[in-house]
Amino acid sequence: MIAFVLPTVIPMYFWEETFTNSWHVAVILRYVYSLNMTFLVNSAAHIWGNKPYDNKIKPVQNLAVSIFAIGEGFHNYHHVYPWDYRTAELGNNYLNLTTKILDFFAWIGWAYDMKTVSSDIVQTRMKRTGDGTNLWGWGDKCQSEEQKREAIVLKEQNH
Ligand SMILES: [Zn+2]
């Protein structure tokens, strides 16, 4: 009803669109687009991107998929921590609209007991199994020489 009937009937009623225009643009085009963007999570986000959390699995962090699938492209994180409702680490949530929506429903009390992962656990796992990308502060100008050497050793170990 909400996915197919309303998007057809509303443009016909309010803007005098024909059934054909309404059906093809508001329903079929939108549906095909959203399905294809969703499918990118299980194709592109398993091929092109970096692996900051676990370098030994196929899923990757893919920025383009995160944009098109409103936050579902942080897929390396999602496979390492499948129970985390955010599907991404906090620092990545600027693109994560689905998490913002869940946060809103938590704020009004409709969503609760949402599971996340502490940043300590995430940082430890990144150092142990990640590919060395995306670590907080790594590569920054303010990083000490020792931290820079540690980052290089980690990248060499995991590649
Ligand atoms: Zn996957």
Automatic annotation (TrEMBL):
Keywords: Fatty acid biosynthesis, Fatty acid metabolism, Lipid biosynthesis, Lipid metabolism, Membrane, Oxidoreductase, Transmembrane, Transmembrane helix
GO CC list: endoplasmic reticulum membrane
Topology of this chain in the membrane: Multi-pass membrane protein
GO BP terms, alphabetized: unsaturated fatty acid biosynthetic process
Compartments, as annotated in UniProt: Membrane
Transmembrane regions listed in the UniProt entry: none
Co-factor(s): Fe(2+)
Gene Ontology MF terms in the entry: iron ion binding; stearoyl-CoA 9-desaturase activity
InterPro entries reported in the protein's UniProt record: Acyl-CoA_DS
UniProt remark on domains: The histidine box domains are involved in binding the catalytic metal ions.
Family of the protein in this entry: Belongs to the fatty acid desaturase type 1 family.
Name of the featured protein: Acyl-CoA Delta(11) desaturase
